[in-house]
């Protein structure tokens, strides 16, 4: 049974640290956003948003979903791209996927320096209204929130199963 992401099961600290460092480096220089320790997201606020997911195969396997509310996505797009991009345009999906891809590449490099294998997938982008990330029970999770003058975004990190079951590797 799926549950709404809740940071109740410990997520691997080395991975969350690499995500925090890579995202902080990107958002600070590109969007004037900073990490908000113990930041909260209002799951009940009805709003449109856009999210990009990337999976990492390695030790351990894990994934992230980078989510932006509509207003934040539009503001970040203008700052990052240097021109306005409409929320509903295909270019917005490309931009959010590219942001996720740039951060994921930095995460992989940071983890490799620590001897942690993290081969990343291509980004997948979804856009919708009033959506929540659902995760299976028995997995480790955490959330990292970033905020600045142009809005906020967050990473939902979903990791290793803690119930003794293993992820199935692609092609297995």
Range of helix content: 25-40%
**What is the total domain count?**
1
Basic shape: globular
SSE run: EHEEEHHEEEEE
Number of strands: 9
Would you state the CATH class? Alpha Beta
Largest sheet geometry: 7 strands, antiparallel
The average pLDDT score comes to 83
CATH architecture: 3-Layer(aba) Sandwich
User: What percent strand?
Assistant: 25-35%
Instruction: Give the low-confidence spans.
Output: 1-8
Instruction: Measure the end-to-end span.
Output: 23 Å
Number of helices: 3
- Class by SSE composition: alpha+beta
| Assembly form of the protein | single chain
Strands, helices and their partners?
Layout: E1 2-4, H1 13-31, E2 34-36, E3 48-58, E4 62-69, H2 70-81, H3 90-113, E5 118-120, E6 124-129, E7 134-136, E8 139-148, E9 151-161
Antiparallel strand pairs: 1-7, 2-8, 3-4, 3-5, 3-6, 4-9, 8-9
InterPro entries: CheC-like_sf, CheX-like_dom
Keywords: Chemotaxis
Organism: Gemmata palustris
């Amino acid at each position: 049974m799926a549950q709404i992401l809740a940071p109740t099961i410990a997520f691997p600290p080395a991975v969350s640290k690499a995500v925090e460092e890579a995202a902080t480096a990107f958002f600070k220089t590109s969007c004037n956003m900073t990490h908000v320790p113990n930041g909260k997201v209002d799951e009940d606020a009805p709003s449109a948003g856009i999210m990009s997911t990337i999976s990492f195969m390695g030790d351990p396997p894990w994934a992230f979903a980078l989510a932006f509310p509509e207003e934040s996505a539009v503001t970040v797009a203008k700052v990052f791209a240097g021109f306005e991009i409409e929320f509903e345009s295909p270019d917005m999906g490309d931009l959010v996927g590219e942001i996720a891809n740039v951060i994921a590449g930095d995460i992989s490099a940071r983890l490799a320096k620590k001897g942690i294998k993290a081969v990343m997938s291509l980004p997948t982008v979804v856009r919708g209204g009033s959506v929540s990330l659902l995760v299976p029970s028995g997995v480790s999770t955490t959330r990292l929130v970033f905020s600045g003058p142009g809005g906020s975004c967050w990473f939902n990190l979903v990791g290793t199963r803690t119930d003794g079951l293993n992820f199935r590797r692609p092609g297995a």
